[in-house]
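[Solved] Which block belongs to which protein?

Original post:
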Amino acid sequence: MRRRKCRLSAKHLLVVTTFGWFITFMVLINQLTPIRDNYTSERLAVLTEPLNAPGKETPPNAINDNTPGDETPSGKLRDATMRNLLFLRDNIMEVQYFLSNRRKDWRESEKRTMQELVNHLWLETYQILQDITGSQCHQNLKQTSDAIVAAINEIQQERDCNDSRNKLALCDLMKPCGFGCQLHHLNWCFIMSFALNRTLVLDDRTWSYDPRGWSDNFLPISKCPYPKSPSNATLGRLNVDQSERVITIPIVDMLGSAEIVKSRFLPSIPTKWAGKISQCHSAPITWYASHFIAYSMRPNGKLSDHLKKVEVSHNLNGTKYFGVHVRRSDKKSEARYHDLSEYMQYVDNIQKKFKNTSLHIDKQIYLATDEPRVLREETLDFPDYKFHGDESVATHATPGKRTSNGSLIELLTDIISMSKSQYLVCTFSSQVCRVSYELMHFERRTEDVGWRYQSLDDFYYYGGQADRRWYAEVAHLDPDQQLGEMSAKRNEALDIKGNHWDGFSKGTNSRRQTGLIPSFKIRPSLSTFDLGR
């Protein structure tokens, strides 16, 4: 143990030193002159102290971790180091975006040097996290995941449907939108029913994608039949501690942001598991939600056989590949157009970054799209990569042909294949992209895969969720008014609306000032709730 303590301290010091060297180097080439005083001292101070150190303000809505652990000084230092390293790892790229934004006239040699430094620091931080957390986090996440799955199974499959003491929550698939949107509606119902200790019963009799219902492709969500006389009691219009045996869960968009059931449960995770999850995972809310998506999408025999054939036909089994989702068609009015080259820029950077490391990804891509021309023409510009995909699948994914069982099978093939990739590049404005990212978390639920993505537009969110509170991990006290920046005190509550992926995010501070703030200075809070009994 004594040897391990010294090793961790030395490695932690190496990260801080390397990061400081990186900052110093950038100052020497006049990149950080206007911001170095505001950045270096505060950021490096954060790296060397616990997030909730004694005498410091606890960030708004931040988790109060009461999980039993190592209470020795070395144990507390290790836990604080883990959290700070997670924060550092997930913000290294944001620092690069920020620096690139602040100066446009980089020489090629400077670009290469900065990229090499950023890659080195990221990989070193990743390896230290593996050394510190390693088997312990693997065990924590596995035990927690097994407990969640067991609890879901007990509520959904083992209870007596005719016992009046067992309460039910009803959910239908009548929401007028695409499959990803409908699936997220179902998942909202599932998360709510689980939180309230109710068995979820699905009404899929008039499902637009398959008149034979959900179980035509998936295993039944529960063994309880849909009641002949559904209850008129609707969640959100009553108190959350309802006594009615049967309630109906409405579409989340119908609930106001102030409704207690929405603000309390979405996005949040159960208190009993929060400590172990947050210590070991950079996206705890996504990891938790993935269990319900995965349970809903357990393939039946027919779908399983189809997926195996696809895996064999594309020769993907055992291949470390990228997942790329290019959404066009109906998204033209909702999101900005992105050429395939924009996606490939991120793919190429990651492929080079992980080359000759344990994270190496092959030059192979599973490409999902609803625009056949992307597979037919645009991929020709990247001869070094092998693309897996089917033009006929892309044709069936066009808006006029989506709501058929055949197109559903092909869409599921795309979603599940992307979820098994090593790294996902897509637009989080697409529900299909977010479903793949969520399933990736369950597919590799014993490790932290929160970083294995790049979105070209939105950051991750759950459609219809209550506003998620962020806070300033590092103060931003001297904003550039001409660039539209806002100020933020350390630990000040923030409402962040989006990441611009150029080093800045846009939001509003607690003083109702709206503007931009460097993305590496902010962190989302984590709210929790107690499960119903």
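(Second protein starts here: sequence line, then its structure tokens.)
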Amino acid sequence: ENNIFRGNLAIFTKTSSSLLNVDVTPASFWIVNPVNTFENNVAAGSTHFGFWFNMPAHPGGPSFTNTVCPRNKGMLKFSGNEAHSCGRYGIWVWEFWNPRGDGSCEATEPQMTTLEDFHGWHNLRGVEVEEGSGIEMKNFVLHDNWISQMEVHKCNEASFEEGNTRMTDSLIIAKTSSSDGLNMRYLGDDVYKCGIGVVIPGKGYWSVYNSYFKDFTECEVFTACGGCRADLIGGFFSEYKQITYENSPKRGAFKWEFEAVLRDLDGTLTETNVANSVITPDMAVLDSSSCSEDAKWSYGPVKGMTCDAKTNLIRLAWNKPSLDYLLFKRANLTNEHGQISSPYVFKRLTHKQGWMVTVPAGHTYKMQWDTDKKFTNATFKMSAYYPNEGDYLIITQDLADKPDYITVGGSSNKKLTAIESTDDAGTFTFDDESNTLSHLITGKGITGSKELPMDLKVYKCFYENCTDPHPKPLPSNPTKLQRPETPKKWSVSSDWVGTEEGWGGYDAMLPKPGDNVQIPSSWWMIYDAEMEGLGDIFVYGVLEFTSEKDTLLGANRIIVVGGKIVIGWKDAPLKVKAKIRLTGSQDDKEYTMNDGTAVGSKALGIMGFVEMHAEVPDILWSTISEKAAKGSSTLVLKDNVEEKWKVGDEIAIASTSFLPQQAEKRTLTAVAE
């Protein structure tokens, strides 16, 4: 620390494949501790980087100690430096740099640090910040950098009020005469055209103040989203003031409708002189009376829109639905102006494997999914970003049934009258007639532009009052239990004695179609019947299918709760047929298991044990040895299956083409050698 590097020239720093990783991608000035002075140095012709800020979490090698945290420290001085003709970046901040307080490992308060008076040109990128916060790049001059002049990927752990990364008092030029005629074929162009001015970070809080942009005629001044290694992500905000353009008609480009939001603090970014106006990609939920297309910001696949100061957008992101069948489906939000749709994206910047939109505040949005199935258990991890005091969203959902439990943002704040924008965040209502849930997201009482967790937990209990009336599950592993000498039999009415009222088998009457059935934990029941049309079957004990005859059990669903279903044993496989036929419709009420999993109709839900063993023939398949004419009822096989297959067995005859519809299923009526 406290070293001074002043007036040095580093030229032609070359890569080496025989040393450390940092030598494979070398920098003319490799900075691993910012508490030093770098002044009036020049890096020229490096194969990779001019100045690389590569602070480790702790010093390594012989100097290792976990009491020093270089990433928490601010710059002592970085001024008057220059980088040009570098194969990668003039300045590279990688991997993390988040100055904190006094720079100690215990410090947590965001702290600003300044890099100033830097000149970068003829590099692949002038400056790239991979991840950091509290970094001010002041009085930079960047021009003729091939891909971009300034690019920032992630601004972490701060807000606009607390040490956000920013560029101030800088001059950015797309192209000067120094680049005329340069051969750029290795980048796909015959000659150099220009590099993007600023690539806005994909995540975090970024600002540009008092900066001048010149000659952006063939590429854009601003694009998004920096560091986004997947499509359809981003959605974060950035702020601008005192922006000046010269000969720069191409202001910006957007790739998709929720990519970024730019806030113009003083009207200079949009050149409208309207403070707090907004630049956003076009979306159907914008108010046309407040937003209009701006051709200067429409050089990408999605048009750019300029909105007045009344328009404030909120980033809304959510994931981890309680219902797995919502994964990979699109989520649709509709207000009075139109509908937007968010795809499910696996790699998001926040709320991975989820959904994200940016929507104008002050509206009610109906949330729907690309599925015809209605559901009640609408539980998500959800957050709102950038709600200001007075901003609000009302989200409504039409549910299948009235839920028993609702919390929004960790609180259960139900209101009996209509939601108002002045209510507290998390306030919700439920309409018993339409089964419509509405909940409020608001910036009321929020200080600073930060994330507002608004997790939504909604579920319907299967039992009345959310109390399970059934006996507790078996206290031990059922596989250790032995069948009693005289187990109960389904077909014996007296064996149903003890059944609770309201369940099939009550009053020693055999279960009938439509009944719900439970097998208590103290029972071992042999199923020896053929019946269909039962409701729900709950197995707390053991339900064993008889090995003496064919059986058929038809029910809406079967749920094993700590118990066990046995269809044949490992040492005594089943030699007869046992069929389970599950019925029902999508409108049937769901059953919520102990882990929160919702079990619909036509389901076999296992929270216990199932054991199935059937007799398997020695020969499972064979080929036809002679042609079978159309309409023939006889097949001649290559293998002798006389003692392996028997009358009544079902066989599948494979298709002779690639069309599976040509496969056939037949029942054997005779088997001979």
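Accepted answer:
You had them paired correctly. Confirming on the second one: The radius of gyration is 35 Å.
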